[in-house]
Please model this.
Amino acid sequence: MHELSITRNIVAIVSEQAQGSRVTRVALEIGRLPAVMPDAIRFCFDVCSRGTSLEGAHLEITETSGCFLCKNCFSEKKTDEFFARCECGSTDLECIAGKELRIKEMEVV
Amino acid sequence: MCTTCGCGKDARPTLTNMNGDKVANIQIHDHHHIHSHDQAHEPHHHHPPALGTIISLEKEILAKNNMLAARNRTWFEEKNILALNLVSSPGSGKTTLLERTIRDLGDETEISVIEGDQETENDAARIRRTGCRVVQINTGTGCHLESNMLARGVEELQPPANSIVMIENVGNLVCPALFDLGERAKVLIFSVTEGEDKPQKYPHMFRAAEIVILNKTDLLPYIKFDMEKCIQFIRQVNPGVRIVPLSATGGEGLNPWYGWLRERHKEGSSNLTL
Model:
């Protein structure tokens, strides 16, 4: 249940930035690779935001797909699987996208 | 414990210094969310966004954890301490491997231990019997250690310069992969009784590790475990990882593990003289 810990971080960061203003929207970017479930974040967000300036805020989550760079033939491969194999046969792939855990923006009134 | 969000009145992380019986509460964060513990949650309701000021943040959610981890890492490097994050599923033999390693290498290098478990001080008590420094962090409902808990643990532990600090993370093959503690490397302990397809089931952790210990090899004659296939699965997820099959209870295969520890510890010292 690491989503609870992640969501507490989200609420803490946004509350600090809002400086007492009411937050109406929070936009997140979450990669498909780090085993973080957007549904679990939504569930935890409802709970963690109660009694804070984020209570009732609309939560927008954009999921980003995984992308790896093959260290053998330098081609890019889009996949959400960690045990992917490049067409050239190599399994030595470096993750270049899909690991994001970022707060993009927020809206305050 | 509240089954709605996992919170609990007495579920805050606590720290026990086994060297002096001191108990201190670590405050990780304010547990400020309020919800009724008598009722089930209402279904999710999302409000349409109101018109307002849009503030671009572009902030990493785990920035605070990563910043504190970087601070821990610098502290370890300055003291030439090799800090290792030991990760595994529960019951893979982490504590047994630690007991054995401390007994065998304790004379050449001081080893101290930070134990992470949800509950009990059992593991710390076992390590304490080897005579080394140990502190226990109980995470309560938390499923992994975070860098601020480690910072408090290290403060209590006070490991000497040029030593090794073993951080035994909470037995869990999912969450600890996400939370950097400031360690030099993650050591994954995986026992042959867990089945050869664990690397495929938990690829994140296997990818994050620098060395995989395949423990309990003494049980191989009694179980169905395809060693070759397992190594192939590990390599698919993490091609460059070091794999060391051994038996922490029987003692077979320990030398390559000790060799790796000495090598990594020496690397730190050579960096210092540069």
Remarks:
- The CA atoms of residues 106 and 132 of chain B lie 8 Å apart.
- Chain B has one domain: 63-273.
- The helical segments of chain B are 63-78, 94-105, 122-128, 147-157, 198-201, 203-208, 227-237, 254-273.
- The two ends of chain B are 52 Å apart (CA to CA).
